[in-house]
Amino acid sequence: MIKAVLFDLDGTLIDTNELIFNSFSHAFKSVLNMELPQKEITTMFGRPLKYSFEKYTQDKLEEMIHSYRSYNEERHDNMCFAFDGVKDMLGKLKEMGIKLAVVTSKRKVLAERGMKIAGIYEMFDIIVSPENTEKHKPEGEPALKACELLGVLPEEALMVGDSHLDILCGQNAGCKTCGVKYTTLQIKELEARKPDFFIDNPLDVISVIEEKAV
């Protein structure tokens, strides 16, 4: 029986895909004078920035992070929306008594800001961000931390995300996992991780919870 749902944030609950892509593109162009293809940039989605950038530079790592964050935060509030169906889905889960967590690689201050703009902040019991754990996605520690804070066992939790990193995080923690087919990332990579469930839209999470309750 599922007692808690752990959601990735960007690309799963809120649509910030264009903002994130543009922020990466800006950082690479302005600091390293590099123009990377979209497919390469999207592989970096969902990781803490340090791990995304260190492959390309060590000397200018902090400058890359600063460039990304400056561009991102300046435009964030105008490019941050809840996906259709997210608010209804979260409301139904609350009515069902399901505990809710966001497990994100985004800094807590910006995660909270985005959730408030999208109108979903008050629906969540906890937020687990990179500040809360030593290890990050795809390691299981963020999901385990969320389960600990919510007071549920990992096997009683469902991890939902748009990235293979989310699926691996849930699997490494011992949670059930659910991929979202509305991802803008490489769907084949998500499928290769063999999540327990796939959903076409946010409201489909309700059906997954009801199926596991049988």
Automatic annotation (TrEMBL):
<dbReference type="InterPro" id="IPR041492">
    <property type="entry name" value="HAD_2"/>
</dbReference>
<dbReference type="InterPro" id="IPR023198">
    <property type="entry name" value="PGP-like_dom2"/>
</dbReference>
<dbReference type="Pfam" id="PF13419">
    <property type="entry name" value="HAD_2"/>
</dbReference>
<dbReference type="GO" id="GO:0008967">
    <property type="term" value="F:phosphoglycolate phosphatase activity"/>
</dbReference>
<dbReference type="GO" id="GO:0006281">
    <property type="term" value="P:DNA repair"/>
</dbReference>
<dbReference type="InterPro" id="IPR006439">
    <property type="entry name" value="HAD-SF_hydro_IA"/>
</dbReference>
<dbReference type="GO" id="GO:0005829">
    <property type="term" value="C:cytosol"/>
</dbReference>
<dbReference type="InterPro" id="IPR036412">
    <property type="entry name" value="HAD-like_sf"/>
</dbReference>
<dbReference type="InterPro" id="IPR023214">
    <property type="entry name" value="HAD_sf"/>
</dbReference>
<protein>
    <submittedName>
        <fullName>Pyrophosphatase PpaX</fullName>
    </submittedName>
</protein>
<dbReference type="InterPro" id="IPR050155">
    <property type="entry name" value="HAD-like_hydrolase_sf"/>
</dbReference>
